[in-house]
Design goal:
about 800 residues; Rossmann fold; 24 helices; Non-ribosomal Peptide Synthetase Peptidyl Carrier Protein, Chain A; eight-stranded mixed β-sheet; single chain; nine-stranded mixed β-sheet; GMP Synthetase, Chain A, domain 3; 34 strands; alpha/beta
């Protein structure tokens, strides 16, 4: 029998903005149609901005007039009970059409023009809308249907026109699921259902007319509909924004420039956006709401570091079928689980657990399903979530996993959510997805895990899983930047399976298209990193390969970092095919003077490339280069930014891309011989790793006293070492103040680049040159680099970090580099 949970919830604004003034949304308003409440709000705030999208703006008065005019048209062209399709981008015409449908006494279905064609075709087949409202800029092919194409704000309705009344308990809104478990399902909500969510949102967040909403979720989700109605029925403003193709910086700039006060984001998108943040949020941003997926405590920490101290963070747990839980996150409630609890029960619901599965029973549960053009009502207003949860002693509920995510591994039943929870317990794991697949060789099932982690080496993670039963340990691990998800933010199981198969195939055939120039190699590498599958053809389209707007944002940021370019957020939309994108990037990359400088002539053959230290110049490399018995040319690589007018690189990855292009221009074929002094060793390592990934032969990689970022050392030691190294790195020609300032700027950029850099794994030998006199009792170079290479060779030299290049003896150089 189900065990009913407490129906005595905490106040909606507990731990939230309890001192903020607002007008409470009262229970009696749940009995009035949305159009009546909007009418009174619009009259009260006629001159205030209601909606804007960067191109058009509508005041409440203008929105009210447009709603009445379109409602009259819809009522005249359809019959009561007909469904109105709303196929519009995230702009001012979207809320206008939603409200007009309700004012006309017609239910509506929101259709996102950016969703896949297959999804839209299936939804239209099931929804059977009598009429579709779209905009002249929408490119979707809907010619076979009755269509109204908006070209501007409709004129007001004729005086005296009155719409047919739509009862608050009749079908009002149909929202189709993403189809993660099969065919999309149409969920039918009444106005009462929608108004209950509005009431809870307003009364929890104390929404008032001074608020400005931004919702980074699709308008065809319950979140999109709820937030539009919440803002407009509270007299607040809504900023409509197309996330498709958006740049992370564009979103951050919009939040600041438009002085957004309430932001909703899916956790996955939030992580991508904040990864591009270089400054704290504006003080106007008072509330960030999270939902649609698991929120981690690491997400909370990320947000807390970005927001001003007084801002609140709210987690909302709901489904298209029903609202269930919410809370303003209180850090004192943090436990051992890396997942943030999903909240306290909302009033008006009865929650129960049946074998751990959460069930909600309420008059606010969805009316039923929309099938073949009409509503099929549920016999009971009850919703089985499929989520396994537990209630803590303090009343908070924690989500443990999904009832339908179980697999049989070597005869044992394994809960995939339990596997993910165990992996999330590792301190460096940000997100994870696990699934079971059948092995082609023997037909047995195995676990595959995709992990978002700051460390690409998986040995430590595998070791941590030894504490769980053997069947729960994944056979195959992949490190990825983001977990592939559907537009609804649910796991894209089909993509996960396809990605695993593509990766296994690429392991057999080698990465595609990696033999071109550095631009092509970089794009292919970032493409595979973001989409988790290699480029298959020169004309492959990023979006047809499975990329979505969130991945496009991540892809652009990664490309900028790797190529040290500032890219337009529309570049990928303009050039989505691999070859076209590479060509566009080559055009944008301005030719620059080569950073290569010959330090010692040679007799031909493969030269040795020596990369600069923290200060960027190569004067301190000269003594060693000239004393080397190595018979071939020795070439130094100086940093960008030392010459007047040059832009300094901001990441190790960007330096590696730039220097590799110059190296390839000088030496088109391997084997390549690389070495780096101090900071330069990080760049040499990254170049060697990329060469190996692209199939180029690497003959030698040497690191001269190269350690991880000093910013990770104890504060006193790091400050002492940084100051000493920068001062000692000033070459005699750089004594003039402008030149010295450029050196200091290069050093500062290199210092922070090293702090952001996370070395991968190099499947060959690293030669480590270690000075006899170490600094600050730092760990040995071998201990530092052992996790990042297949083999380590250590060569001890005389002197300390600053003098080792001048004092290394010729016999040592001959033994390492040859004659």
């Amino acid at each position: 029998m189900p065990a009913w949970l407490s129906d005595d919830p905490r106040p909606l604004d507990w731990n939230g903005p309890i001192d903020r003034g607002f007008t409470r949304f009262r229970d009696e308003a749940l009995d009035r149609p949305v159009s009546e409440t909007f009418e009174s709000v619009a009259l009260r705030h006629r001159g205030r901005i209601a909606v804007w999208d960067g191109r058009a703006t509508l005041t409440f008065g203008e929105l009210r007039d447009g709603v009445s005019g379109l409602a009259e048209t819809l009522a005249g062209q359809t019959q009561p009970g007909d469904l109105i399709g709303v196929l519009l981008p995230a702009g001012v015409w979207l809320p206008l059409t939603m409200l007009a449908s309700l004012a006309a006494g017609r239910p509506f279905v929101v259709l996102d023009p950016h969703y896949p064609r297959e999804w839209l075709d299936r939804v239209l087949e099931d929804a059977r809308p009598a009429l579709i409202v779209t905009h002249e800029t929408c490119s979707r092919d809907i010619q076979a249907r009755r269509v109204i194409r908006l070209t501007g704000c409709p004129v007001p309705a004729r005086p005296g026109w009155r719409p047919a009344r739509l009862g608050v308990d009749e079908p009002a809104c149909v929202l189709f699921t993403s189809g993660s478990t099969g065919r999309p399902k149409g969920i039918v909500n009444s106005q009462r259902n929608l108004l209950q969510r509005v009431a809870q949102s307003i009364n929890a967040a104390h929404v008032n007319a001074e608020d400005r909403f931004l919702t980074l979720a699709s308008p065809c989700t319950i979140v999109g509909v709820r937030d539009l109605l919440t803002a407009l029925l509270a007299g607040a403003s809504v900023r409509l924004f197309e996330t498709q193709g958006a740049d992370a910086r564009e979103i951050l700039n919009l939040i600041r420039a438009e002085r957004i006060t309430i932001l909703f984001a899916l956790p996955a998108m939030l992580r991508s956006v904040l990864a591009a943040s270089t400054e704290p949020a504006h003080a106007d941003l008072r509330l960030v709401r999270l939902g649609g997926d698991t929120t981690l405590w690491s997400d909370f920490d990320l947000l807390r570091g970005w927001l001003t101290p007084g801002a609140a963070i709210q987690v909302i747990y709901a489904a298209t079928e029903a609202p269930m839980l919410q809370w303003f996150v209180d850090e004192s409630c943090r436990g051992d689980d890396p997942r943030v609890p999903i909240g306290y029960p909302l009033g008006g619901n009865r929650l129960a657990l049946d074998s751990g599965e959460l069930i909600v029973s309420s008059e606010y549960v969805a009316l039923g399903r929309w099938v073949d053009g009409h509503c099929v009502a549920e016999t009971q207003r009850e919703f089985r979530t499929g989520d396994l949860v537990r209630q803590r002693p303090d009343g908070l509920l924690e989500r443990l996993g999904r009832k339908d995510r179980q697999a049989k591994i070597r005869g044992a039943r394994v809960d995939l959510d339990g596997v993910e929870a165990a992996l999330r317990g590792h301190p460096h794991v940000r997100d994870v997805a696990a699934f079971a697949r059948t092995d082609d060789a023997d037909g047995t099932s195995m676990l595959v895990a995709y992990v978002c982690t700051a460390h690409e080496s998986l040995d430590e993670l595998r070791e941590s899983m030894r504490s769980v039963p053997s069947p729960m340990r994944p056979t195959r691990f992949y490190v990825v930047d983001e977990i592939p998800r559907l537009p609804s933010s649910k796991l894209d199981i089909a993509r996960l399976h396809a990605l695993d198969e593509a990766t296994r195939q690429s392991e057999r055939t080698g990465p595609a298209l990696m033999s071109g120039d550095v631009i092509a190699q970089t794009v292919a590498r970032v493409w595979a990193k973001v989409l988790r599958m290699p480029v298959r053809a020169a004309d492959e389209d990023f979006f047809e390969a499975g990329g979505d707007s969130l991945q496009a944002m991540t892809f652009t940021v990664e490309l900028e970092r790797a190529l040290d370019l500032r890219l337009s957020p529309t570049l990928l939309n303009e050039s989505p095919r691999f070859a076209d994108l590479c060509a566009a990037l080559r055009e944008r990359r301005a030719p620059r003077e080569s950073p290569l400088i010959s330090l010692k002539p040679g007799s031909g053959g493969a030269p040795l490339f020596l990369i600069h230290g923290l200060g960027g110049h190569i004067a301190n490399l000269l003594p060693m280069a000239r004393r080397m018995a190595y018979g071939r040319e020795v070439i130094g690589i100086r940093a960008r930014g030392l010459a007047h007018g040059e832009t300094t690189h901001s990441s190790v990855e960007a330096m590696a891309s730039d220097y590799l292009a110059a190296i390839k221009a000088r030496q088109p074929q391997g084997p390549y011989r690389l070495a780096g002094y101090s900071f330069g060793g990080l760049v040499a390592f990254e170049i060697a790793r990329r060469l190996d990934e692209s199939g180029d032969a690497v003959g030698f990689v040497g690191l001269f006293d190269t350690r991880m970022s000093p910013l990770r050392w104890p504060l006193r030691a790091s400050l002492s070492v940084i100051a000493r190294r920068v001062v000692r790195s000033q070459a005699p020609p750089l004594r003039a103040l402008p030149a010295l300032m450029r050196v200091l700027k290069v050093a500062a950029c290199a210092l922070f680049a090293s702090a952001r850099y996370r070395p991968g794994f190099y499947p060959a030998t690293l030669t480590l040159f270690t000075p006899a006199q170490r600094e600050c009792a730092l760990p040995s170079l071998e201990e530092t680099w052992r996790p990042h290479a297949r083999a380590i060779s250590v060569v001890e030299t005389e002197g300390d970090h600053a003098t080792m290049l001048a004092r290394v003896d010729s016999a040592t150089l001959r033994a390492v580099f040859g004659d």
